[in-house]
Task: structure prediction
Amino acid sequence: MKTKLLILAIFVLMVSMKSDKPAYRFFDKKGNQTKYSHLLKDALNADIVFFGEHHDNPICHWLQLELTKDLFAKKGGNLILGAEMFETDNQLLLDEYIQNKISEKNFKNEAKLWPNYKTDYKPLVDFAKGNNLDFIATNIPRRYASIVYKKGFESLDSLKAEAKKLIAPLPIKFDPELKGYKEKLQMSGAMGGKKSHTADNLPKAQAIKDATMAYFILKNFTKGKQFLHYNGTYHSDNYEGPAAFIPGHILCMKCGAMLKCHRRIGRLKSPGPQIVYFEYRIDHQASLE
Result:
């Protein structure tokens, strides 16, 4: 009797799911609807994958975990995870928690966790923990990004050697002409025609974050493995962000509502990892017809 009831419950659930409106759709560069299987196929052929999220978008966070599970099903222990949401000075804490050396309580009390960690990033960290995967903290400690915002790149030169281990090697190759940095400059400090004394440094503060993420991705990447990196869409839009500091081909996935979509697949001559760049748009509000 119990078995019959279970089968009936599963049948009812499947019928109800079939009648529900889909929660998201995928689009290619021309705006044509495509499939998750196409995205997964491209992701599996990449060495490094950037998942660009909208931080407050639940569909993005759900899809992050699903993609992680699917990549792990094929890559196993050759999959490496990393995220901008963890700063490099928290790497030891992250390692100790994943390796069961410290409790979750101690990890939460001591690590600099984002407000939405519990709902959005804890499932990713716990997946790494449960499957013995490396999880790399890639972002620069915010105090050093703040120094750059206030005083420019030169302010980092006076840091002690131990501090410099937590950031990309100096000097970084900063290109102020990149679209993302130019937009940051336009957004900053232009109040009533006057520019703040720190306005010119805002793109630099973003660049030191991007350079640090790229450095720690490459530092922990080895050929034959795959690195899946979670970051805000800003950090992988327009083939920029950390990607601008990594030679080779990069696969980028962009998740959010009504986003511009691009696709570029090519082969560049580069000593860096052979990666493919693929950017998707995911529209989680367009399937209401």
